[in-house]
Amino acid sequence: MTWRTVVLALATAALAAAHPLRAAADGALDGAWVSGPLDVRYEVESWGPDCGPHPPATEQEPGGTVQVTQHGDDLTFRGAMRGEAGACWTANPEMRRSTTSYQSGRWVTVCQTPPNDPRSEHGTYALRLTEDGRALVQTEVTRYDWELKRSRCVATRRAERTLRRPAAAAPPPRCVPGHPATVELRPSSAHVDLGGRVCFRGRVLDAKGCEIDGAPVRLDLEAPKGRAATLAGACFTARSGVAEGVGSFRVVAQSGSLRAESTVVVDAPDLARLTARRERERTEARSVGAETEGAAGVIASAARLSGDGPLGVSRAGWLAVIAALLSMLGAGVLVRRRRAGRANAALADHSTDGLDTERRGATDSAKALPDDAPEVCVDPEREAGMICPRCRLGHPPEAERCARDGTPLVPYRQFASGGSGQSDGDKPRVCPKCGQRYAAHVAFCGKDGTALPPLR
Questions:
Q1: At what angle do helices 271-303 and 315-349 cross, to 10 degrees?
Q2: I need a surface site. Which of 110, 211, 267, 356 has the fewest CB within 10 A?
Q3: Is the pLDDT of residue 422 over 50?
Q4: Banded pLDDT at 25 (limits 50, 70, 90)
């Protein structure tokens, strides 16, 4: 390895150490935000008779309260705005994420339909945190270029909204409680994932809304048929299994004849996001290994140098360069490993990882088996889990049918690759049930989940 390679490696390590990509601290953006309306405007270049209704010049979607949850550089939104920073903010199921990045309080994601899709769509979705940390600005730029029958449909959609932290409210004046009038249960509704937990607070109020201290409130849980959860004290805990855990539950608060209810919806794991995150972690681990091997090569080559180098640098000088390089590379590897450790811990604790909770349950059951129990093997195609092609609900590897609509499941790897396991060239596909036509790479009908054979 030449001196040029050594200097280049040292400069690269210094640049990486000087410009780390870090989001705000975990949980710094957690809480309830208020979203303004989504302002949308369209720029239409071409719109034929086969394109459908002509887009309006402008339109507006209402805002409301949004619950923001932060894990590292990932943001999740629930309420008036639902989704994740880094997702494709579109209803088109054919959109695929091309790139996603975070830097200095700005998240940018680019999505694109497959090249041969007649309904071509390209979108850039961004979120920007203002300098004072009190507002998040969401912007979308989506370009449509469709070829439908004899019409060309070309338009650009631009949308923007702002989320703000609510101002701190002044403390309410002290009140003197009267007779009990109502029971208040907070939160009034909640969404949790498999294995997730949410705690409630019940209190008794008088007709003016003044809390009556010491008034007893009893909490009970009402579960739908075939579903189960736990209510311990004031805290609701969802089961880990998809079949028994997913559903809508009611927490009931009672004080005498007064009653209040709260709805808890248990969601299934987002298998697509889980798999993509694990692939990113594997890629980062391989990159760390490659950096370590590269550093070893630099050390070995530099150690063979004798006397002065080609730049007139003494052997002591080369040793100083090597020491600096090792320090920088070691710091970079340590930062990456710590970051991966935090991501793994958050992923294990995060309630969206229903697939891992299923596997932990299977491991606990296996520990109770005798030593001579037969070993259970998992089909390699199923290792990444199963997914419903109709509603996109994720399931563990051993599941056969969707817990939500009974549709036969397919391996997630097969579904994510967009193929059915057979090669049919460029032939288009047609749904045998509803007749909808799709491009050659599409394997399942987006309306009813039916497998798509090639058009004969």
A1: 170
A2: 211
A3: no
A4: low
Q: Kindly list the distances between the CA atom of residue 226 and the CA atoms of 247, 251, 403, 454, in Å, as whole numbers in the listed order.
A: 9, 17, 11, 39
Residues 6+ apart with CB under 8 A from 271: 355, 384, 385, 387, 394, 395, 412
Phi, psi of 38 (to 5 degrees): -90, 110
Encoded tokens for 286: 């391989």
Q: Whose CA is closest to 130, among 61, 26, 29, 21?
A: 29
Tell me the DSSP string of 168-181. PPPPPPP----SEE
Q: How many CA atoms lie within 13 A of 354 on its CB side?
A: 31
- For every residue of 100-147, which 3-state class applies, written as one string? EEEECCEEEEEEECCCCCCEEEEEEEEEEECCCCCEEEEEEEEEEEEE
pLDDT at 176: 87
Q: Which residues of 224-243 are buried (b: 16+ CB within 10 A; e: fewer)?
A: eeebebebeeeebbbbbbbe
Q: Tell how strand 197-199 and strand 386-387 pair up.
A: unpaired
* Cα distance between residue 254 and residue 203, in whole Å: 9
- Using CA atoms of 130, 136, 101, 131 in order, give the dihedral in degrees to the nearest 10: 10
253-277 residue pLDDT tens: 999 999 999 999 997 765 555 666 6
| DSSP H or E segment with residue 456 | none
Q: How far is CA 5 from the centre of its chain?
A: 40
Q: Which two tokens stand for residue 46?
A: 């071409």
Instruction: Indicate the pTM of the whole model.
Output: 0.36
